[in-house]
Amino acid sequence: MQISFYVILVLILLWLAFRYYRLEKKIIRAVKRNFDMISAIASIVDRVEGYNKDHAKEVTEIALKIAQKTSMASSSEQLLSLEMASKLHDIGMLMVMNDLIKSRQSLRGDHVFLMKIHTLLAENYLKQELGLTDEIPSIIRWHHERWDGFGYPDSLKGIQIPLQSRILAIADSISAMRSQRNYRRKQYKTNEEIITELKSQAGLQFDPNLVNITISLLEKEE
Amino acid sequence: MLRFQASWLMETIMDNITESSDPNWHFPCLWKFTALEWLSHLNNKFIINVPIHSQAIIFKSWFYNQNPFPDSEVMRAFNQVLNTSIDINSNPFKDWLDIYFSKQQLAYLQYWREASGDIRDIALKESFLSIVYQVMNYWIINNKYGFENALTPDQIFSFYYKKYAEFREHNAKFSITEFDYDTILPENCSHVVFNLVFKDEDFIDDDSFFVYNAWLGGYTDLKESKKTIIEKIKPYYFEFGNTKNFSFYKRMTEKANSASFCWSGTGISLNLYKRFLVKPLQDVLDGTYKHSKLVYKPINPTKKQYDFILLFY
Lengths: 222, 313
Ligand SMILES: [Fe+2]
Ligand SMILES: [Fe+2]
What we know:
The complex is a heterodimer.
Chain A: H1 2-48, H2 55-67, H3 76-88, H4 98-102, H5 109-130, H6 136-141, H7 163-177, H8 191-201, H9 208-221
Chain B: H1 6-16, E1 24-27, E2 45-49, H2 53-63, H3 72-78, H4 103-118, H5 122-144, H6 153-167, E3 173-177, E4 189-195, E5 197-198, H7 208-217, H8 222-233, E6 237-238, H9 246-252, E7 256-264, H10 270-284, E8 292-300, E9 305-312
Parallel strand pairs in B: 1-2, 1-4, 2-3, 4-7, 5-6
Antiparallel strand pairs in B: 7-9, 8-9
Helix pairs in contact in B: 2-5, 4-5, 5-6, 5-7, 7-8
The complex binds fe (ii) ion (2 copies).
The site of one fe (ii) ion (FE2) has 4 residues of chain A, from loops.
């Protein structure tokens, strides 16, 4: 009597474990599909922006590496938000006129202002979908802010800019430095050149603390 | 006022109010000039009250003064090559040596302060001072993180000159006032905007604010500098459960068609803000405005950090 009870119990547990295993596999597959979908959309944005490579993917990789060396390394939730924001950071560009982005001239006046709106468009549309408690739209809003307070859209200064956006800004710039785009004249090829550029922008465009972290990462890569 | 998001405020207003054709704005207290960058592209009028004199100079230089800039006098003052062997003991700012500045940087700061005294045109002088402020910012930060300065003073100068030219390409009309809390008057306007400051909020997040203020006054005591600044800001502090500012809000909204309160949350729960900030303000402005609307957005939801706008219309 007792033995059969235990046998049944074990069978039930096995069955539950099997169901759980299958469910988890299904969820993982679904999550992975969503991730892949986001990456696919990101690579469309890359082409619209005139990149000849997977810019968003590169930005994401660099951003996560930097983030691992900061106070947010232990927060899987924040890391995930940064990952998503990095992938979608320029999605607002899809809504800014195509010819403007591809313009070979350097941008001036009203055109500069129009370009700046891509941060707001992205935030607004994502906010509607993601709801009021998700930080991804805000991270994207501030990916063009500068440490010295002369960025856009809000001209925030220093630590007013959330850490994730500061990381995204630096990762975005490194990826841009490594690529050849129409209106970007200079291309930085070696890590050494990138390090020099980062140093010169510490305290101006970038958070000096993050510059230090990034430089040591780049030096390890050499 | 950790973060002010001008375009978000605009959106919130436009979502709820049919805008008049020629809107004008009143900010009774603001001290970060870059906060105006976004608004400066609008074809609107702004009255900005900056209670801290050392910052008001910078506001005026970037957004108000009508002057050709820089002129040769200013350029010359920035392009001097100073002898590093200058005696540090006679430098009035020597207390800051190796804390904020190097010997050579201190020599520049001494020289620039004297040079600014020789600029007779007030607007030009203010432009000059506001560029010094940017250079100081750059030096303080780089020294703090141990970076060698990649740019020379005149290179930073020309960098910020370009920025300056960008900022000056604005459509908006600004007037900058320097009233104290007690003397500021309500303005006939479409929108009055209050950037709330909290007592325990580290509202000025870098030393350059105090260092610059002291440099301008010709002294090095940063405690003193901080004290003079806090004295000006203190009356604006919002304290939970304290109604001391409510008559101020009531007075400032007298002639305004709408009022907005903007603030950055610091980890206090949403419900507490609703109970101890939103509700009391709604009660006090009940007779002035028919509607109110609270909007917020997450900054770091794991730490319960949100930014807020409370709009009355
Ligand atoms: Fe972007
Ligand atoms: Fe990008």
